[in-house]
Amino acid sequence: MIKKLMVVLAMVALFASVANAQWTNEGAFPDTSFTGGTHGIAVDPDGKVWVSSYFKDIPFGDDSVATSGIVVFNADGTEADFSPISTVATGGGFVVDTLNGNCRGLGVDENGNILYVQSSRSKMFKINYQTGVGMARADITETGSSPTAPSVSDDGTIYVGPVIGGGTNQIATYDTDLNYLGAAVVGPPAISRTLEVSADGLTIYWMPFTAAKTFIYTRADEFSEFTLTDSTHEGMSIESSAWNPATGKLWISNDSRGGDTALENVAWYEYDTATKELGASILWDSPEDGELPRGIDFSPDGTIAYVGTFSTGTPRIQKAVMGALPTVPITFEVDMSVQVNKGNFDAATGTVTIAGTMNGWDAGATSMSDGDGDLVYSVTLDLTEGDEHEFKFVKNGDGWESVPNRTYTVPASADTFLAYFDDDDGRELSTIAISFQCNMELEIAAARFDPATDTLSARGSFNGWSDVTMLSPSATNPNIYEGAAKYETFD
């Protein structure tokens, strides 16, 4: 009984953490070299990530045929040994199909096997997720138009909608062996890329992006007919969707065509079907013009999301993880002793703050303190690794440093940044004269230097590596070139 209770508590804790999580986009998966369009993402029970495109960009055989094939990655980003998949053999291996019919979407059946739906030839394939071998295929002309991505209820019933709704076109249902069962809904409206069915098979979420809303069809039990009972997501353009297996919540995409300006472009939002509220979100990193969100699925534990867009030259997939990136404690210190000595700052009454990109350049937001009275003021901030910040120190609320914005990139481990206020360490500048001499006798003899046409200058960090300090022949020895300049330096 105690062990069972511990398992239940652990599952409750996991559910709570996932349900309330932020999501952080970690960027391209498996890396930036994997580019092109996405028109379907599915994650199998082993955590392998399956992705396919509407475009024909996966080579078959000797590269003479370009297909809308499937690329399969292990969770660590390495490619599965049976990837890529450009053909699928079914019927005991006697029927071989090349996947060149433009993928419309991928799904996962009740046993974890992969469903591949293609458009121009209106076929659906079932592929063993452990081996990549074909298990079944079907012509799915029943939808009445090219098909949408599939969705599967817990009993194994597969739902596929028509891209173009209306008329006699239907959301069709198929059994786990891809045999046609019948129409769930006839004439769903508008144009859609995706739909979802609830786990119990009693609710269908029809999400046509051209209608910028979701139509909800429900039935009382498996023997009843579906009827339109509700609608939601007004102003959202939805083109991809998935259920999070850990929370049971629906995730839906959005792009700017939906019209709801309060929502992000090329993003995915968590939707609670019970409360009808949007929750957490996953944003596509650096969307380009014309990118549309066409794929999403989750790892088996619901803590990793894989998303993709309909594009050509951008990453096919980006990976998002539950929770924010880890933070690093960074201590900022500013030495005010020189300002005190010069009478520019009163340590008894004055204040010191830091303002920059880490706090919205708010001069009063982040106070610094001098606990030991050594006139070095400090504050420790938890910042995200890899973030680049600009900032300045501020005295007495509005006394900003006059130096250019300071820059800092957050490292992987704790660090300290120390500077004098205004970079003034108390040393005084003074002017010194420097004389330069260079014997050019050998260069002239070797004809590598012609005094009649060539010039000589002294260059270095002291003059910005410029030619402002010119040297000329000495009055006493024409082979000796000499010159002098004055420079400011610290004592």
**What is the tally of beta strands?**
39
* Overall mean confidence score, pLDDT: 92
C-alpha geometry: elongated
Radius of gyration: 33 Å
Distance between the termini: 78 Å
Sketch the major β-sheet: 5 strands, antiparallel
In short:
The protein is mainly beta. Helices cover 6% and strands 43% of the residues.
Please, could you describe this protein's structure?
This protein has 491 residues and is mainly beta. The protein is 6% helix and 43% strand. It has three helices and 39 strands. Strands 29, 30, 32, 33 and 34 form a five-stranded antiparallel sheet that branches. A four-stranded antiparallel sheet has the order 1-27-26-25, with no helix packed on it. The chain is elongated. The N and C termini lie far apart (78 Å).
Strand and helix layout:
Elements: H1 2-19, E1 23-29, E2 41-43, E3 49-52, E4 58-60, E5 65-67, E6 70-73, E7 87-90, E8 95-98, E9 103-108, E10 114-118, E11 123-127, E12 134-139, E13 151-152, E14 158-160, E15 170-174, E16 180-186, E17 192-197, E18 203-208, E19 214-218, E20 227-232, E21 241-243, E22 250-254, E23 267-272, E24 277-283, E25 292-298, E26 304-310, E27 317-322, E28 327-335, H2 337-341, E29 352-356, E30 366-368, E31 376-384, E32 388-395, E33 399-400, E34 406-409, E35 415-420, E36 429-439, H3 441-445, E37 456-457, E38 470-473, E39 480-490
